Amino acid sequence: MEWVVLGLLLAVMAWIIWTYNLFVSLRHRIQAAWKQIDVQLKRRHDLIPNLVESVKGYMKYEQETLTKVMEARSRAVSSAGVKASAEAENVLTQTLGRIFALMENYPELKANENVLRLQEELTTTENQIAFARQYYNDLVMRFNMRQEVFPASLVAGFFNFKPSEFFNVAEAEKVTPRVDLKFGA
Q1: Quick one: which of 7, 55, 129, 132 could link to 37 by a disulfide (CB 3.0–4.6 Å)?
Q2: How far apart are CA 146 and CA 159, in angstroms?
Q3: Which of 166, 149, 151, 146 is nearest to 23 (CA)?
């Protein structure tokens, strides 16, 4: 009988250790995933001034829009934390969408190789951000769900694990503005 109790206690201890280590592992994976988002956001932030500089000469009457993009970029660069970063990036995406929409009114921009290259780089970066955000949010969902499921919730509560924040995109931002910069359109 003592062996059975001892075996049961060892099994419970092993499960607690395994569950704790799983929480720690998920937390570190979430942090690493956030760093990947951060890398892509920095790349995006670095491309935006080049795009604004490239279109500035053509879009003389759109200086207010260009200023708003740079202000939104500045807020995005200085934001800290998942929620603040998501909100700032949503505003930046909105203002970038306005530039791309306005570019339709400038045929010479459609022919500018530098602008086309920058737009392609931004599109690639946006896709990488979306992929990194999806991976991050998947990990957050697993981590948060594991904390709520019994009996793992007991370990999470005892060791004071807290839910992580999702990197959310505002509903209005989920639709990517379509821009066609083909010649003769």
Answers
A1: 132
A2: 13
A3: 146
Domain boundaries, the chain: 17-174
Homologous superfamily of domain range 17-174 = LemA-like domain (1.20.1440.20)
For 44-55, give the DSSP string: HHHHHHHHHHHH
pLDDT tens readout for residues 156-180: 999 999 999 999 876 544 555 454 4
pLDDT digits (tens, 9 = 90+) for 89-144: 999 988 888 888 888 887 777 777 888 888 888 889 989 999 999 999 999 999 99
Query: Are 84 and 169 a contacting pair, CB within 8 Å?
Result: no
Distance CA 61, CA 103 (A): 12
Residues in the chain: 185
Closest CA to 73 of 50, 55, 49, 56: 49
- Cα 149 → chain centroid: 27
Torsion from C-alpha of 71, 175, 125, 100, nearest 10 degrees: -60
Distances (CA, A) of 38 to 32, 48, 64, 68: 10, 15, 28, 22
Beta carbons within 8 Å of 134's beta carbon, 6+ residues apart: none
Identify the residue whose tokens are 């075996």: 7
User: pTM here?
Assistant: 0.78
Task: Determine the residue type at 178.
Answer: R
CA atoms within 13 A on the CB side of 30: 22
